[in-house]
Design brief:
The protein has 356 residues and is α+β, with helices and mostly antiparallel strands. 38% of the residues lie in helices and 18% in strands. Bound molecules: phenylalanine.
């Protein structure tokens, strides 16, 4: 039986057929047109919904014949509408004005080198010109590399010179631990001596930790560059020459140095080096506390016990070592009095080094 529509004389099959022939030809040039078509075909009162209304009235035995093509028709319309929507947004995007590639770009805010990096690299550069290379080592160290191999006797009070942060391996056991944060980069020197024979000429830059109250002059972490030279016939005179060369390169050709006797367990003899105060030119000012000199590093001849403990024959070889704080050098070079500024990361402070 042919079920005829009450408003026209086409059967429902004929109208499904007619609509399915139209689907591919549907076109929308604008969002408004698309909406009009959607209302016409897919809205609650649209052509397809109307077919479904009629479908309800069809006798049961004919439903099977009409249901499948009707569902297919609905799916075809939905797919075509999705496609038209996509085509339309692609067309809208394509019609947008293109990026002007000749336009001057917005200025980028560039970061600047950190003053401590600048100073560290300058120190490395000065020493690399006379044959030093850079060695690296861990910040979390053990007692052996930081103290024992460096001639610190087990109960020696010299260990108190460097207030150490210890790391508890298993806190519940409450056992004394030998794992610690390195207090100086001399630990890298022991690692180098243990792994290679002279000639050795290395620089050991890195961060170190000491349990000190934070103030304008001290911090619980800071940076060092230490140096080590071991070979045959290395003398204190060689050390003095190299340090004088360094001071002149770093602070200017007029800079003078002064070595004062000092004590470190790992060097003998040991010394501390001062440079002439470049703020007052040696006349005496508040920065150098009226002395005309400022301390910049510790140094000395490597103690024979250290060489022997690290497997280097102290009867054949001698060596010198020195160690300096990068903050201390930066503080002199840039006249920064409070070393906390170096670790606060205030861009107003850091940006001042942009041109350095
Ligand atoms: N390691 C010493 C310190 O951190 C510095 C130093 C290095 C002194 C080498 C002498 C020789 O204070």
């Amino acid at each position: 039986m042919n079920f005829r529509n009450y408003r026209c004389d086409m059967t429902i099959q004929e109208r499904i057929e007619a609509l399915s022939q139209q689907v591919e030809g549907l076109k929308a040039g604008s969002a408004e047109e698309l909406e009009k078509l959607r209302i016409q075909y897919l809205s609650k009162k649209g052509e397809i919904a109307r077919l479904y209304d009629e479908f309800k009235l069809i006798p049961k035995d004919e439903k099977a014949v009409i249901g499948a093509p009707l569902n297919k028709l609905k799916q075809a319309y939905e797919a075509r509408f999705a496609e038209m929507k996509e085509l339309l947004s692609a067309a809208i995007a394509a019609a947008q004005p293109k990026e002007d590639l000749t336009r001057t770009p917005d200025p980028l805010t560039l970061g600047t080198r950190h003053p401590l990096s600048l100073v560290r690299e300058e120190i490395i550069d000065i020493f690399s010109r006379i044959g030093f290379t850079v060695a690296d080592g861990p910040e979390i160290e053990d007692d052996k590399h930081v103290f024992s191999l460096l001639n610190f006797a087990p109960e020696h009070p010299a260990r108190d010179m460097q207030d150490t942060f210890f790391i508890e391996k298993e806190p519940e056991e409450q056992k004394p631990t030998d794992i610690l944060l390195r207090t100086h980069t001399s630990s890298v020197q022991t690692r180098v001596m243990l792994s290679q024979q002279p000639p050795i000429r290395v620089l050991c830059p890195g961060r170190v930790y000491r349990n000190e109250a934070i103030s304008a002059r001290a911090h619980c972490f800071f940076h060092q560059v230490e140096g080590l030279y071991v070979d045959k016939n290395v003398s204190f005179a060689d050390l003095r020459e190299v340090l004088l060369y360094f001071a002149k390169e770093m602070f200017g050709a007029e800079t003078k140095i002064r070595l004062r006797p000092s004590y470190f367990p790992f060097t003998e003899p040991s010394a501390e080096m001062d440079i002439s105060c470049d703020i007052c030119g040696g006349k005496g000012c508040s920065f150098c506390k009226g002395t005309g000199w400022v301390e910049i590093l510790g140094c000395g001849m490597v103690h024979p016990n250290v060489l022997d403990a690290c497997g280097i024959d102290s009867k054949v070889y001698t060596g010198y070592a020195f160690g300096m704080g990068v903050e201390r050098i930066a503080n002199l070079k840039y006249k920064v009095k409070d070393l906390r500024l170096f670790s606060e990361n205030d861009v107003r402070f850091l940006n001042q080094f942009a041109s350095c």
